[in-house]
């Protein structure tokens, strides 16, 4: 059980710290190997110095781990406390490594006792023992460099997450403004029709139920298939046709290859409603709304146009009294697909048109020239 806990603890250590520890050990192994070989070649031709170097290297590898944990503990305190702590840590490291060098160099050959240890430590305070301080300084230097870059990475990650959350909140806000506007106008339409025919009222209630279900299921601005959006538009138009009768005609011109294209939910409804309310409804003889969806290579073209009042309409910029319908649709498209997908609005005395493009690419799917034309609801 203890072995399992130990292995799990090691696995939980981030890979960057494992690599840093391994590189430090390799670096000091190379230094000890070269230094010991030169000492053996130039000064002492005795194999015991290789064993001494091995013992010192093993101790240093263990102390590097301790220094990492010690630095991590100090990091939670102020800079001044960290500086003081590392000064004490460097001194402790020096005494540990100095004592170990005394044991492997002097004590084992009979120079044991306080005076010999003291003399050995004092001798290390000169140039010979500076490498013990270097070991500590280099190790904490590696620690702080890693912490610095990890901090930058964490900051970038938090910034990206914050931007994503802000974007999601913005999209949710825009959509929450669109939905009440749509439902309010739909209920007004039903209110004028409920008393005319029970059968028609039953159909309208069923269609309204489907509309509510679609609107309520569309959370977080997740994508839906175009065919689902078209069913939603059909229900909306059927409710409006109960009110306007033959004065309102609706035609879909949709490439079959586009039916499974993912689009934001309720992205077409404000465009259609704008045409109904400000293009067709005020016109005495009504008119026709044409919804076109075509594919051009890796782009999907959407257009809602009508032959209503056009530029003669009292209001052609937006389909809601609060001015959020078309504006928010444009913002949603920009936020999801980029500025190239913004709404393009054209208006003249013969009608009104709103169009936009969205990018789309799917392997194995080719554009179809076959179009669903003149399908009246």
Automatic annotation (TrEMBL):
Domain Signal transduction histidine kinase internal region: 169-248
Keywords: Membrane, Transmembrane, Transmembrane helix
Coiled coil: none
SUPFAM superfamilies reported for this sequence: ATPase domain of HSP90 chaperone/DNA topoisomerase II/histidine kinase (SSF55874)
GO cellular component: membrane
Pfam families, per database record: His_kinase
PANTHER family: SENSOR HISTIDINE KINASE YPDA
Identification of the protein by name: Signal transduction histidine kinase internal region domain-containing protein
Organism: Pseudochryseolinea flava
